[in-house]
C-alpha cells in the first residue's frame, strides 16, 4: 500500500498546462463573454470524492485501496504568489482510506491554488500560477505524518479558455518546480524527508532528496534526467543500489534496442548491464512528458456524477504521459471534467496507469498500478455579489 494523502490531481484539475495552440480565433464582437465559473469571495463548493487504487506486482496477488472523502472549495481573497496577483482558491480535503490488508488511514489535506482570469483576444484565460499544500494523516499501523509542498510553473497553466468552444485544444507548459517536506513517525522512529524537483519543458529534471531517520546516517540522493532520455542516480546508500548508476537512452545494440546501465558502488568495480528497452514503443526515445487538453463541446453530465447528472455541460479532456528513466516508471493519465455555466466544474473523473519496470537488469514489468477517481459536486453556496467580467 502507498501511504500518504491521495493525489489531488483529479480533484482540482491541477495539471501542468500552458501554451495554447489550436483554439478558434475570437473577434471584437466576442468582447463580452459569459464566464461559467462562479468566482466571488466566499463562494463555496462541496464535492464527494471516491478513489480506487489497485496494485499488481507481477506474480503476486492484487492489493486494493479505497478512499472516500469530502472536498470543500472556497473562493478566497486576492493575494500575491510567486510575484503575481491571484485569487486564493482554498480546498480542504478530508478523507479515509482502507486497503485489502485492513490498514486504514484518516487524513486531511489543505491546498491553496492561486488562480485568476487573464484577458485574451476578446475572451478570458482561466489560469493557475501555482499552489501550496499541507497535509497530515494517521494510520491504523500507528504511523503519523505531516507534509508540506509548493508548486510553481514555468508559465501559468491554462485551466480553461473562455468562451468555451468545441474543438479548441492546447498543449502543456510542462516546466514546474516543487519543493516538499515530510515527517513521519512510527514505533518511536522519526523520518524527515526533504525533496526538491524541477522539470523543464522538454521533460528533463533534477530531483534531490535528503532523508534523516532516527539512529541512521543522513541519506542523500540526486537524480537527473536529460531531454534525450538518459539519466543518473547518485546516492550515499549502502544497499544494492548505493553509489552511482547511469542509464543511457535506448540505442540499437545487436539487433534490438537496449539501455546501457553502468553501476558504480561507493567502493568497488563498476558493472555494465545491457538492459532490454522498456520505454514505450521499444525504439528511439520519444517525448519524455506529454500533455494535451481538449474542449469536446457540450454534453450531458454523466449519471455517475450524481446530483448534477443530466445537466448541459462543456466537457474538457486531458491526456498526460510521463516517463522517469531513473525510477523506471511510465504513467498514462486521462481526465474528464464537466463545466456547467453558473456552477463551474461540477464533476471530474480520472484514470491513471502507472507501470514500474526493472530498469537495472531485465527491463521486465515489476508492478502495474491503476487509479480511478471521481469527484462530484454535492452542494454550493454562492455569494451575493459578482466581480464584473470574472
Describe the model.
The chain is mainly beta and 390 residues long. It has one domain (9-381). The chain is 1% helix and 61% strand. The chain has one helix at residues 9-12; strands at 44-57, 63-81, 84-99, 104-120, 123-139, 144-162, 169-170, 176-186, 189-199, 205-213, 219-225, 231-235, 243-247, 251-253, 256-264, 271-276, 289-300, 312-324, 329-340, 344-357, 365-381. It has a 21-stranded antiparallel beta sheet that branches. Strand 4 and strand 5 (123-139) form a beta hairpin. 34% of the residues are buried.
Short descriptors:
globular; disordered C terminus; 61% strand; 21-stranded antiparallel beta sheet; mainly beta; single chain; 1 helix; 390 residues
Spatial shape: globular
Order of helices and strands: HEEEEEEEEEEEEEEEEEEEEE
What distance separates the N and C termini? Answer: 43 Å
The major β-sheet equals: 21 strands, antiparallel
**Ranges with pLDDT <50 over ≥5 residues?**
1-31, 385-390
Number of strands: 21
Structural class: mainly beta
Helix content: under 10%
Taking all Cα atoms into account, the compactness measure Rg is 22 Å
Count every helix, treating DSSP H or I runs of 4 or more residues as helices: 1
- Summed over residues and divided by their number, the pLDDT gives a mean of 90
Percentage of residues in DSSP E strands: over 45%
The domain tally reads: 1
Amino acid at each position: 500500500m502507498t501511504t500518504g494523502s491521495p493525489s489531488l490531481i483529479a480533484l482540482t484539475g491541477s495539471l501542468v498546462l500552458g501554451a495554447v495552440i489550436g483554439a478558434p480565433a475570437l473577434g471584437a464582437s466576442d468582447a463580452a463573454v459569459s464566464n461559467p465559473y462562479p468566482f466571488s469571495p466566499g463562494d463555496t463548493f462541496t464535492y464527494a470524492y471516491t478513489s480506487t487504487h489497485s496494485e499488481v506486482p507481477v506474480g503476486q496477488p492484487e492489493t486494493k485501496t479505497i478512499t472516500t472523502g469530502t472536498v470543500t472549495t472556497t473562493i478566497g481573497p486576492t493575494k500575491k504568489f510567486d510575484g503575481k496577483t491571484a485569487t486564493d482558491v482554498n480546498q480542504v480535503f478530508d478523507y479515509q482510506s482502507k486497503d485489502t490488508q485492513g490498514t486504514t488511514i484518516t487524513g486531511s489535506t489543505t491546498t491553496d491554488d492561486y488562480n485568476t482570469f487573464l484577458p485574451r483576444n476578446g475572451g478570458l484565460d482561466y489560469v493557475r500560477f501555482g499552489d501550496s499544500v499541507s497535509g497530515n494523516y494517521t494510520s491504523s499501523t500507528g504511523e503519523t505524518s505531516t507534509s508540506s509542498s509548493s508548486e510553481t510553473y514555468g508559465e501559468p497553466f491554462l485551466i480553461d479558455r473562455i468562451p468555451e468552444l468545441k474543438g479548441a485544444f492546447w498543449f502543456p507548459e510542462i516546466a514546474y518546480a516543487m519543493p516538499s517536506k515530510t515527517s513521519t513517525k512510527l514505533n518511536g522512529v522519526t523520518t524527515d524527508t526533504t525533496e526538491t524537483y524541477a522539470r523543464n519543458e522538454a521533460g528533463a529534471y533534477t530531483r534531490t532528496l535528503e532523508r534523516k531517520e532516527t539512529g541512521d546516517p543522513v541519506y542523500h540522493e540526486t537524480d537527473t534526467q536529460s531531454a534525450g532520455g538518459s539519466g543518473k542516480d547518485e546516492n550515499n546508500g549502502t544497499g544494492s543500489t548505493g553509489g552511482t548508476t547511469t542509464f543511457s537512452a535506448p540505442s540499437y545494440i545487436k539487433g534490438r534496442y537496449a539501455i546501457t546501465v553502468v553501476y558504480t558502488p561507493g567502493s568497488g568495480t563498476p558493472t555494465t548491464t545491457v538492459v532490454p528497452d522498456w520505454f514505450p514503443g521499444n525504439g528511439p526515445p520519444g517525448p519524455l512528458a506529454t500533455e494535451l487538453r481538449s474542449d469536446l463541446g457540450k454534453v450531458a453530465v454523466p449519471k455517475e456524477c450524481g446530483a448534477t447528472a443530466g445537466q448541459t455541460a462543456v466537457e474538457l479532456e486531458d491526456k498526460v504521459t510521463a516517463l522517469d528513466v531513473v525510477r523506471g516508471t511510465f504513467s498514462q493519465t486521462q481526465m474528464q471534467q464537466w463545466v456547467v455555466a453558473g456552477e463551474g466544474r461540477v464533476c471530474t473523473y480520472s484514470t491513471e496507469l502507472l507501470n514500474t519496470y526493472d530498469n537495472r537488469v531485465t527491463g521486465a514489468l515489476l508492478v502495474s498500478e491503476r487509479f480511478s477517481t471521481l469527484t462530484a459536486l454535492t452542494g454550493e453556496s454562492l455569494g451575493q455579489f459578482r466581480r464584473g467580467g470574472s
